[in-house]
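Risk register update: the risk of archive-format incompatibility is retired. Evidence:
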Amino acid sequence: MAMRRDAWVDAASQCQTAVARVGAYGAEITSPALPFLAQTGAAGAVFLAGLVGFQYAGYVCGISCVTPALGPMFGCAAVGVSSVAAGQAAAAMHRLIEVGDLWPNNSFGATQREEILLHALMGIAGFKALGGSFRNVMPSNLGYPGALARFSIPAKGEGYAVEAERAVIRRMFKQFGCHHCGRRSGGWSASIIPKLALRTICLQTSR
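Archived output:
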């Protein structure tokens, strides 16, 4: 019995040693990646927050994805400014990891103009290289196809949405989401742009 108990103790000790070695090896592998992941996460969060801020500003100013000139200009500015903010967030996270301080020795004031310009240009170039459209950064206009619109089905008067066409629209909605907000769940409307119901009301009230 004593020999069997000693064998169990030895086996448990060997298992603990093996687990400790695996844990140390995993920490050795993942530790270099953690700063990179932290910087990437901070940059991504700040970039998205910047785009959302510009979208709200566009909504308040009445600038949408179909506004001539101002729509693409605001979208380009949104990508550029958000890219600069994302670059600064990544640099701040790097300083926090390395020295434990976000802005040591007034490093924020020491940011070079060339660095800001480089981040803006790289963000804009990367956005376009990935197929982005500056005007689609701005909010949608309900009177026109939305910022996320890809294709459409021609309308044929008041009876434009027969069952077969509704089935196609339903599949489009589930696959691509709403062309205005992007959601893929909930109810949907197979109306046309501009809204056929509003057009009918306008015609009736103008008589």
